[in-house]
Design brief:
The chain is of the alpha/beta class. The protein is built from seven helices and eleven strands. The longest helix is centred in the middle third of the chain and has 20 residues. The two termini are 26 Å apart. 36% of the residues are buried. The structure holds guanosine-5'-triphosphate, magnesium ion and sodium ion. The site of guanosine-5'-triphosphate has 22 residues, from α1. It comes from Tetracentron sinense.
């Protein structure tokens, strides 16, 4: 199969940031699910994954009336934990993604694992978008469910707008201290050396259309070559576990190529290579979190 711009794979996007900045909640907001509330202590402790088909992204960005013509079939989003003890999982997540979302709590600014995540992304030269989440916590915020952020911002009082601008400026300064230029995405026309910031609320959905549109436009603009589907299997193992009724299962992210039932696979073991045959292939439903093990396709 010839690699071509008409046959792209889904970009893999990793969501990273300090604990409790709202990474899982943002995905819940897009999925229309409630995964976060089911987590022990409200803390993510594993890598998660969700597939967002192109049509769902198109629906969610419609209000922006922008060119959301999607050439990619969808977007695979990897959720990572923000708790300090899971550096290894953040490293895995950032290692297998094409792009990343770095989530910052607008009320807290940059925190230790924000900076750690930032350094992981810098190390691998991974492009990312900054999400400034929890804008609904600005005192006096008027909720505009799922509205594009510019529209939502226009609904706010001068007082709220001032507080927003003050916090934004402070956070831009904090990024500058880390050696990074950042700017609100709608003021950042270049998409070059300056990283884009998207304000959001994972509770009421403001800014979510903007985030999705930006992710898609940006992958089209900067990585078509990298996203051309290739027949050569490229697959990363996330987790190995025994599931009742299925025996030993491995969670994988299939980046390129095709897997079939009956295929022989070789994976790295602790002592030696493990040779196995694929007995069954299961995929979570679109818009469902991999970690919630119910009814796979
Ligand atoms: P870890 O995965 O444990 O690092 O946390 P996380 O970044 O996934 O954050 P999570 O989604 O668990 O959200 C943490 C808390 O913040 C929860 O109580 C959420 O309800 C709350 N929260 C998340 N996003 C928002 C938001 O936009 N606005 C408000 N008001 N609360 C939010
Ligand atoms: Mg989480
Ligand atoms: Na959390």
């Amino acid at each position: 199969l010839q690699r071509s711009a008409d046959n792209l794979r889904s970009p893999i996007c990793c969501i990273m940031g300090h604990v409790d900045t709202g990474k899982t909640k943002l995905l819940d907001c897009i999925r229309g699910t409630n995964v976060q509330e089911g987590e022990a202590g409200g803390i993510t402790q594993q890598i998660g994954a969700t597939y967002f088909p192109a049509e769902k992204i198109r629906e969610r960005t419609r209000e922006l009336k922008a060119d959301a013509k999607l050439k990619v079939p969808g977007l695979l989003v990897i959720d990572t934990p923000g708790h300090e003890s899971f550096t290894n999982l953040r490293s895995r997540g950032s290692g297998l993604c094409d792009i990343a979302i770095l989530v910052v709590d607008i009320m807290h600014g940059l925190e230790p694992q924000t900076i750690e995540s930032l350094n992981l992304l810098k190390m691998r030269n991974t492009e990312f978008i900054v999400v400034l989440n929890k804008v609904d916590r600005l005192y006096g915020w008027k909720t505009c469910p799922n509205a594009p952020i510019v529209k939502a911002m226009k609904q706010q009082s001068k007082y709220v707008q001032n507080e927003f601008n003050m916090r934004l400026t402070r956070i831009i300064m904090q990024f500058m201290e880390q050696g990074l230029n950042t700017e609100l995405y709608y003021k950042n026309k270049e998409m070059g050396g300056t990283f884009s910031i998207v304000p959001t609320s994972a509770i009421s959905g403001e800014g979510i259309p903007d985030l999705l549109l930006l992710l898609v436009q940006w992958t089209h603009k900067t990585m078509v070559e990298k996203l051309m589907f290739s027949n050569e299997v490229q697959c990363t193992v996330l987790e190995v576990k025994v599931i009742e009724g299925h025996g030993t299962t491995i969670d994988v992210v299939l980046v390129n190529g095709v897997l079939h039932e009956g295929d022989q696979i070789v994976v790295c073991g602790m002592e030696e290579p493990i040779v196995a045959k694929i007995r069954a292939l299961l995929t979570p439903h679109p818009m469902k979190e991999l970690r919630v093990k119910v009814r796979f396709l």
